[in-house]
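assembly run, all chains below
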Amino acid sequence: MPTKFWLMKSEPDVYSIDDLARDGKTMWDGVRNYQARNFMRDQMQVGDSVFFYHSNAEPSGIAGIAKVASKAYADPTAFDKKDVHFDPKSKKEEPTWFLVDVAFVKKFKNFLSLDDIKKTEGLEGMLLLQKGSRLSVQPVAERHWKVLTQGRRL
DNA sequence: GCCAACGTTGGC
DNA sequence: GCCAACGTTGGC
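ok done. output:
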């Protein structure tokens, strides 16, 4: 598998790095975008590293690190009529939506804000920084991961 | 809360 | 298969 590094977005009001630290592990449910689903279903491997990104936050940015803790399986919230992420088109025999389990690794002592990320050199081409990029699950190039994690007190 | 940039849906 | 209308994301 080519990619071993990922970035996954969550709104901290809904589920933050502190929630993951408390739970230890969580189902990354509610992804309803095909590209994001495909990354989880087709490419993620147990043990892959994940930037836990706080979106729609004050400030937005990378809050810590998590890791992929399961292979992809059907997202149960798609079958649950009472769930906000319910999708009547997804059938149990042939699920539309998938998720992986994500486990807590660390919370950064120094939150890495989007502002900091933008100021960082060597991130040319990083998906997160592309205008209009909204993908909530995205691959991170190894060199970008290194640039962001090395030479910093995180 | 605004709104630009995307993604999806559905009429034709 | 086109594309307008609509819904969502997410920075600001």
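Residues 9, 11, 32-33, 55-57, 60, 114, 134, 136 of chain A lie near DNA strand C (CB under 10 Å from a C1').

The first strand of chain A starts at residue 5 and ends at 10.

not gonna interpret more than that til we talk
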